[in-house]
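**Fold tokens**
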Amino acid sequence: MSDSGRLWPLVGRAAELDDLEQLLTEATEGGGAAVLLEGEAGVGRTSLVAALASGAGLLGIEVRTDRGALEGGRAADEQGGARVPARLVVLEDVHLWGAADLEALADVARDGMRPGALVVLTLRPVPHRPEVAAVVTAWTRAGARHLEVRPLPGAAATELAEEILGASIGPALRGAVSTAGGNPQLVVDVVTTARDVGALQAAEGGVDAVVPGWRGAVERRVRERLDYVDDEVLDLLGVASVLGVSFVVLDLAAVADRPVADVWRTLRHALAAGLVHARGDRLVFRHDVVRAALYGGLDAGARAGLHARAAAALREAGAPLAVVATHVERSR
């Protein structure tokens, strides 16, 4: 894993890597191709394209990561009919680029695919500024494929944790890893924080987090990870964290004292970012460690006040008395 924390052992990504390698083969043998590689923050886009680039290098395919790799237009790439050298062009974190660079990237798409090249653009699903949306639209019209990098399944998340620590993990740490909801960066945060604060000890042929009090350090690190999310969204999700892992939007609106339509508008960004997802008539935090981090970041007095509002709202909505009583207790 790199010092930046952006790279980790690649596990559970065989299908995605196969898709990209197939696209690379087709692109370098034909008219070229492009792929928009999207995924939530920390899901492992960088690790995936690093593996693709490593394989391309072994095959003698030129790998470019600079924006100038696309300059010059289609005619220049065709080199007057000569065979074009195979090339992989990886442009990462397009959502962070400045307006001028994004405009240029959109313009490049209008020239069509680069012969003999696979162009990979990585980006988050949100926030999509108009300039980013224009890039996505331009490359989609040019024929780019969309590939979503989803969170890891539970077994792969556990495998990643054990790869990082170099040992099998016990039940307590496995439970903590599960709160990451399959997000590799959050898995890394959980296990490396446990290690760094000295919470790990040998247990059952491996290691486990047996020293209490380390979860607070994880929550602090996770809150730092959320700095890309708009404050309004984080504030509303902080209120939602009081209601638990899952919540009804009507209840959230009542506790937040905001119109339901206004709450939905804000929650759309949280849905797009992968922080929550819909399940029936309720929304669920996709990563419980994120919910815990937001809850732990609330001022104690504000948190008690929100529990009091939750108790009143849920009582009015006809929630079970035991649920209401829990909020009443936490409001004191």
